[in-house]
Design a protein that fits this description.
By secondary structure, the chain is mostly helical. Helix content is 74%, strand content 0%. The chain has eight helices and no strands. The longest helix is centred in the first third of the chain and has 40 residues, at 75-114. It is globular.
């Protein structure tokens, strides 16, 4: 049965890239662990592992793109891609839910318990300590730091990221109407706005370290702040790279009004990043 048939299932050829990438991922993870514990070999391991992982990702996606543009995929494969992307985003939701859960637990349970909210337990946990959020925690009572407020950089950055979602939606509607010029302009604007967002966040981090004395080791507030915003920043970076690749593919005519799931997958991911940031902005910066 032809691979172009509606009922046929496309079976890809054997790939070397999973085996090639495993050492890179192991080196990247191990190097990160060594780096966090002060080891001098941590950074070189992370760099080597990151390069190997990047090569694997680029070459593997290249193979998938070649399979797509040569007409090997059919409607059944499209369904598989959609299901895979949906499960991937669900996994990402659970990833961020864990960090939001840590923030919620610290603010709603741990701090009240330690501060006498429950007299039956507070004297056994940390007697006579008085805490309120934002706090670095009982072990940092003499630490002088300033929490990151919602104004003005975080508010500006929120506006930038939400605007990028609008430009991407405009590009998506243009794709459905086969208006390639508007698609290119919308995607280019989205990539630019995402890059500006990352630049502003980098400036915010420098400001936090130098002016607010807010660092990753600033107790529970510092660790949750940088974990949530930092991992979100990594997702924005990956989203910008993905959208840039999609932009280049649009310029080369890889998509049509009827077949453009690569574009849609990138859009799903970007809108997910937008929604996560709204939660971050509310629960980390505002409340």
């Amino acid at each position: 049965m032809s691979s172009h048939s509606k009922d046929a299932y496309f079976v890809p050829e054997d790939s070397r890239w999973p085996v090639f990438g495993i050492p890179g991922i192991v080196l990247l993870a191990a190097g990160f662990g060594v780096f966090l514990n002060g080891g001098s070999s941590g950074m070189p391991m992370m760099v080597i592992g990151g390069i190997i992982t990047l090569i694997m990702a680029v070459m593997w996606f290249r193979d998938v793109i070649i399979e797509d543009v040569t007409g090997k995929y059919n409607a059944q494969v499209d369904v598989s891609f959609r299901q895979g992307m949906a499960w991937f985003i669900f996994a990402e939701v659970m990833f961020f839910a864990a960090f939001f859960g840590a923030l919620f637990y610290a603010r709603v349970f741990s701090i009240p318990w330690l501060s006498g909210g429950d007299p039956a337990t507070s004297e056994f946990l940390w007697d006579s300590v008085s805490l309120s959020w934002p706090t670095a925690g009982p072990g940092f009572l003499d630490l002088d730091f300033t929490p990151m407020g919602a104004w003005a950089l975080p508010t500006i950055n929120t506006t930038i990221l939400l605007t990028s979602g609008v430009t991407l939606t405009i590009a998506h509607h243009a794709m459905k109407h086969n208006d390639r010029t508007k698609v290119i302009l919308g995607l280019a604007a989205t990539v630019l706005l995402g890059s500006i967002f990352m630049g502003v966040q980098m400036y915010e981090y420098v400001y936090a370290y130098q002016e607010l004395n807010l660092r990753m080791d600033t107790g529970i507030y510092g660790s949750t702040f940088f974990m949530l915003t930092g991992f979100h920043g990594v997702h924005v970076f990956l989203g910008v790279i993905t959208l840039l690749v999609i932009l280049l593919r649009v310029m080369r005519g890889h998509f049509t009004a009827e077949r453009h799931f690569g574009f849609e997958a990138a859009a799903w991911y970007w809108h997910f990043v937008d929604v996560v940031w709204l939660g971050l902005f509310i629960f980390v910066y505002v409340i």
